[in-house]
Amino acid sequence: MDSLSVAPNMKSPTMTPPLIALEEHFYSRAVFDSFDNDMKTGISKWPGALDRLFDAGDLRLKEMDNGKVVLQVISHCAADNPSPEVCRAGNDQLAEEIRKSEETRKRFAGFAVLPMSDPGAAATELERTVKEHGFVGALVDHKAGNKFCDGDEYDVLWQKLQDLDVPIYLHPAWPTRELLQTSYAGNYPPRSMTVIGGAMWGWHSEVGVHVLRLHAARVFDKFPKLKIILGHFGEMMPFMLQRIVDQESIMGKRDRPFGQVWNENIWITTSAAYSVDPMRCILANTKIERIMYSIDYPFTTNERGLKFFQDLEKSGLVNEKELELIAYKNAENLLGVKAQPAKQVNGNGTSHNA
């Protein structure tokens, strides 16, 4: 038997499919220069973060190749309640970056940043970016300052999303200083307070609360085709799903119960959540067509995301067809994008099409 043959009773190793990533961040100068808060201070001190956030060219593409990412949907990082004018300028700068070469046009798509404190302006900017720039939806800080978006004034935005048939990605918002002090300060240094209130716990649970507020306000009854994406394994919601379903009768009858909303209106990504164990729960209560790969670049690396995906391949939890759905096909179906052939990275750091 020659060295390229596979024994009849042995399964051929799985080839990692091309990967599309949806929570991949960027800063235009327009947005970055428009605000000043603790989050911006922290990002500015993070080694290499700003170089990567301002880049939408060679550095980003090289690091995508290192993680077998064939297409990134680029979005503005935490924007801290930007004005309509800032959003317009930032979206135009992102569109320029996407259009600047044949390679970037093939491998980048855009999510719009929206002025969430002004729902009418947000709807207008969403429509403009979809129709003028070909953006495939929006990614926003899920709150406008300290305000949730469950009021009737946001109907204009939900209606526009439904009419355009594009999703909105509800990204965690950095907690206000007041919230940090009242809910997360304790007998420990401030750094512990911010991580508990932020990426360790607080901002994930708050996005879940926001979705439940939308459900309580009958947003999904009024807009049954609304499409919402949640990152980080669904911002805790898969792990509380049965509890939510069991308790929702207390809030009164909804035309569309939360189990239906979960199955029809919500998509989730794997962004920066790199353990196979939670996937066991997600795969048991979430449709495979609603799960999408993501990384959270540059706050974690493409290589770490690839390692997680390869662990999932080896776990036996999903078959090859299901892996392809998570890797890229669900994103293609939701966003109308197309995965390009994966590139193989050589030992010398150069890449070529597979």
Automatic annotation (TrEMBL):
Give the record's keywords alphabetically: Decarboxylase, Lyase
For this protein, the record's Pfam families field holds: Amidohydro_2 (PF04909)
MF GO annotations:
carboxy-lyase activity; hydrolase activity
In the UniProt record, the signal sequence range is none
Q: What SUPFAM superfamilies does the database record attribute to this sequence?
A: Metallo-dependent hydrolases (SSF51556)
Q: Cellular component GO terms, alphabetically?
A: cytosol
Which stretches make up the Amidohydrolase-related domain? 84-336
**Gene Ontology BP, a term:** secondary metabolic process
Does Lyase show up as a keyword for this record? yes
Q: Does the keyword Secreted apply?
A: no
Q: Which family does it belong to?
A: Belongs to the metallo-dependent hydrolases superfamily.
Q: Please identify the protein, giving its name as recorded.
A: Amidohydrolase-related domain-containing protein
